[in-house]
Each structure stands twice: as structure tokens, then as C-alpha cells.
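Figure-free illustration: sequence to structure, shown twice.
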Amino acid sequence: MPLRHAFVLAAIASLLSVAGTSVGAQERPPRLEVWDLTLGSRAEQLPDEFVDLACGTNGGPPSVPLNGWSEFRRCRPEPSGLREVYFRYDDELEYWAKANNIADQMEQYAGTKTYGFPVVVSALIDAQGLLGGIRVVSDPRDTSQNRDEAYLLRNFLTARLGRDNWQCQELALEDGETPVDGVFVKQSCRKQIDDKTIASLATRYLRKPGQSRFDPRTGRETAGQFESLARFELIRTK
């Protein structure tokens, strides 16, 4: 084969390879997140792309499994009258990243996360069957990220809704609560988003009563004896 022809074939092969990569990237499956839920939507119109629906436990692990959004009335109402429906993100995108050997996206799409932080997400549905709010709580069960960093999620949440006009209260430590290596955060914030919507954000980084860095009996350093938490709610008030 003439050398010139060989160069042409090599160039064509390179272009086909790039085109194949582009096509593969376009085939990436979509992934909905809690931010894709629209307040005021009817429960039966909420997306089907989420999995493992269940009654929520105030931002904790799931309880009674549900077969769909329309079963929200099986969940006990909270004092506000809203019923919490827990859900997880579909893991299809994580497996797509693994199949394509894209390391950073394997980590990004592993589990249910927002801004890279493991979270428990839930929808809050009112008595009329309308989406009255969303709840996002840092998940202490997920070990894919250092749990002590969970409280830093607050920075991303406040940025998402604009850093201005948050009304925050710095709370004092109560009896038995102590800083973590000299640092503590105990903050409660609210922001009026519009005439129908209020955001609230609670942040904690401290040791609760009975927790300490060193075991008082053995003197050995403990692991995980602290609270690092970000708890966010976006509530439709009208």
C-alpha cells in the first residue's frame, strides 16, 4: 500500500474513533434529581424516573415501601400536614459510566448525591395531593465521602438559591455539646424565595452529649463521634 494511502486510512480511522466517542457521549442516559421536581405539581404527575419510593422518616431511612407517588396517603402526615415520600436516584447513569470507564462520573453518579454529597431526598405532598415541598438531608450512612464534611453542603445550597437575604441565627451550644477540634457550627437559616415559597437550612458540626474525641475509659481516639449535618427544605406556603 502506498504510504500516502496508509496516512489517509489512518486519518479516517481516527475520525471514526472520535465520532464513535461523540455518539457514545450522546447516548448517556438522563438522570433526574430532586431539583427537577416542581412545587405545586400533582402527585400522579411526578416523574417515574426515581426508584425505591417509600414513606419517609423525617429525612432518615425509608420505612413503608410504596408502589408509586399516588400511594402517598399511606404515609403518616407530619405536624405540618405534609406527607413525606422518600426516593432514590436511578443508578442507570452510574452503570453507564462504569461501562464507558469514565472514572470521575462513576463517583459522581454513585448513589443519591447532590453537589457530590450523599443525601436523603424526599417529596412532601399535601392533603390535596400537590407537591408542597422537598427535603434534602445529608446522609450519614453513605461512606463514599468523609462524613465530617457533610455540613459543608450548606455552602452549595445557599449558593443555589442566592447568597443574599438569608436570615440566619447562630445558636449556642447546649449542655453536653462541644466543638469538634475547636470548631463548631450550629446555625438555622431561612429565606423567602418568593411570595409562595420559603427555604430553610439547618447546619450542625459539633459533638453531641456523650461524644468525645477520646474514649474516657481507654484513652484511645474514637471514630465518628460527632454530628455533621445539613438539612434543607423548600416549602410552598400557598
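We now fold a second protein in the same way, so the two outputs can be compared directly.
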Amino acid sequence: MSTAKVSAYHIVIPARYASERLPGKVLLDLAGQPLLQHVWQRACESSADSVIIATDDKRIVNAAEAFGAQVVLTSEDHQSGSDRIAECAAKLAWPDEHLVVNLQGDEPLMPAVCLDQVAALLDQRPDCEVASLYWPIDEADEVQNPNAVKVVTDIQGRALYFSRAPIPYARSYDSIHEAMTSGVEWKRHLGLYAYRLAALRRYTSCAPTPLEMSERLEQLRIMEQGGRIAMAAACEFIPAGIDTAEDFQRVTDFIESNRL
């Protein structure tokens, strides 16, 4: 698919200080600069019209302004990055028809081409309110891992359901490995989203929904409200973000060895 620049496409990086597993991680020194700066630099390599950091913490504001980023200070009460982005968009008076990409503040290895891809995917799908990406799963253990969110799609590339369970369920086979060798495919959802702002505002104004609370997956709120999510295979592999100290060391080693 084309990743040509789309009109009025913004990237917002929601960043909070109080991470549960690794407090203050967005400001940790990663190969000589704050982790958040790496994320911002990846976003600036895209064709987005603007790149904004949205945070609830003055320490993050000060650090981000020091490396040249545009920052919007938002409420401390938000439960999700989506809520923070909606407030940011309101403060900047972006109109409903604009597109915004949610780039998490702990993904310093995000390929810029994937940011353009997910925005272009939504721009090309007027039947959908949200767009996201997936990557083929080739290991049976990953299919069974509840931390690996799976997605199933229809023939038009729209999400049918997301789950931590191994969907689709390969009932006719003795094992997932056997199903894989027989051609059954699984898709791992990658947590990169593009929203039409009107849809994001509607979605964040609603209370969490039953399936969302059961699976602990925010995107199910959109689907339970009848929203459509366009899906496509990522045009480039997206490495995992940073949740733990072990993740931080893995990414540090990667950046230093590749001189990013």
C-alpha cells in the first residue's frame, strides 16, 4: 500500500511519569538521551504535519522542551493515552475531520514508515473510524501467550475481534503447531492506532464496555460501540516497546550496537 503523506495528520505521544513497572521510564537515559527523545525523533522522521507530546508531569514538559519538542500539559486524571490525546486535540482546537496517530512514549524503535502507513490506511478507508496494524505470528508459544494480543479480520481487512486468547481456535488440529504447518494463520495486534478525531472524541466520552473490561483491551470499546477498525500487515517489523528493566536493557543494547 502507499504510505504517501496524508493531509492534516498529527502524531501525539502520550507520556506519563508514573509507569507501574518502570517509574519515570520515559525520562531514563537511553544511549545518552531520554527515552522519550528517541520516540519523538522517530515521529519526526515521519511525514506528519505535527508531533506533540502530551503529558501530565512538569518534569516531562521540561525535558521535552529542552530537546525541542512541542508539549501540551494535560490532566492527571486520565485513565488511558487515548483520553490524554483527546484532551490534547481539544486544547489545540483540531477539527473532527483530522487524523491523529497515537504513538506510545515507550516505543523508541518505532519505524517512521509504519506511522505514515497507519495514517494512510485510515485516510484510504472512509468506511472505518480507526486503523491499526498487525504482524504474522510464526511461533505456537506466542499464539498461546495472553500478553500477545491476537486479531481476526474480515475479507475487507476490518477487525472482527481482538483477544488475548488464541483466536482463531484451530479445532480440527491436535496442536497449534500442527495447525500452523497446515496453513492456519494468526495475527498479532500491534498497538499503533490512527483515529479520526470525531471517533476518538466519541470513544473517549463513553464508559468502558463489558468486553473491554473482560479482555482489558481498549480497542474493544470502539467495536462494542459499532466502530470499524481497518487492519493491515505492518510494512516493517515493529520491535516491542519498553515495559520493564529487562526491556530497557534490550533496547539499550540494540541502539548502541546499531548506532541509532
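Summary for the second example: The CA atoms of residues 101 and 194 lie 4 Å apart.
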